[in-house]
Specification:
Blueprint lengths: L1 E3 L2 H11 L8 H9 L1 E6 L4 E3 L8 E6 L1 E7 L5 E8 L3 E2 L15 E4 L3 E6 L1 H10 L1 H27 L2 H16 L3 E2 L3 H8 L3 H13 L3 E4 L2 E4 L2 H8 L2
Antiparallel strand pairs: 1-2, 2-9, 3-8, 4-7, 4-9, 5-6, 5-8, 10-12, 11-12
Helix pairs in contact: 1-2, 3-4, 5-8, 6-7
């Protein structure tokens, strides 16, 4: 994982991605740019979690990030993704007193992102109502994402959850060829690889998907949608 600091590049990128940029004073913009690092991470690199501390407010410029919870036993479940142009304030959980659980953040692809120092961002949120509104709006949005995941875990059958995951990946990537292993799917869904493999083989027998090495090809999108919405 590589970090670099360049106030000029940070200023240009922040102006293009933060909706409250125009509502900052010149001094606030300068302080924000100087407190922002450019992060480059390879696929599957850890950005936050596992003792790595509070990263800060993360703004994805390219690639995507996976936010997830990690149990003491090593089980994972994906909470949401941060796509290019989106931000994750929950990576700055140290400035949000209502956050009482740890969120891990990994690069889901090769990623370039901005990371804003959490202390400076916290100070800006206290002094500027536009920044404060952005912080709590983003927090509410991500909690909504987390609650949707919890709803799926508690009230949906595993075949419906797996079908939903495959359809989400199809929508996200725009391709019916999904490059993902059974183990990766299990980590996304908080399940065991063996359970995922059995269900995917069932989907294959039903003609919904075709399985390959490290990939799943969507054959019957309507059939998966029927499962996901049943």
């Amino acid at each position: 994982m590589d970090f670099a600091t360049n106030p000029t590049i940070a200023t240009q990128s922040l102006a293009a991605t933060l909706p409250f940029w125009d509502q900052l004073s010149s001094a606030e913009r300068e302080h924000l740019a100087r407190a922002t690092r450019l992060l480059r991470a390879r696929n599957a690199e850890r950005i936050q979690g596992g003792g790595s501390g509070c990263a800060g407010v993360v703004v994805a410029l390219s690639g995507s990030l996976r936010a997830y919870m990690l149990s003491e036993g090593g089980k994972e479940i994906t909470l949401f993704r941060v796509e290019a142009g989106e931000s994750c304030v929950l990576a700055a959980s140290c400035i949000l007193p209502m956050i009482t659980f740890d969120i891990a953040l990994d690069a889901a692809d090769d990623v370039e992102a901005l990371v804003i120092d959490p202390r400076l961002f916290s100070q800006l949120a206290q002094e500027n109502t536009a920044v404060e509104a952005f912080l709590y709006r983003q927090t509410a949005q991500r909690f909504s994402d987390c609650m949707w995941v919890m709803q799926q875990v508690l009230f949906s059958s595993f075949d419906a959850r797996l079908a939903t995951f495959l359809l989400d990946e199809l929508s996200r990537t725009g391709s019916e060829h999904i490059a993902v292993t059974h183990d990766e799917i299990a980590r996304h869904l908080g399940s065991a690889r063996e359970v995922v493999s059995r269900m995917l083989k069932y989907f294959e027998r039903k003609g919904l998907v075709a399985l390959g090495r490290g990939a799943v090809d969507i054959i019957d999108r309507r059939g998966l949608l029927a499962l996901a919405t049943a």
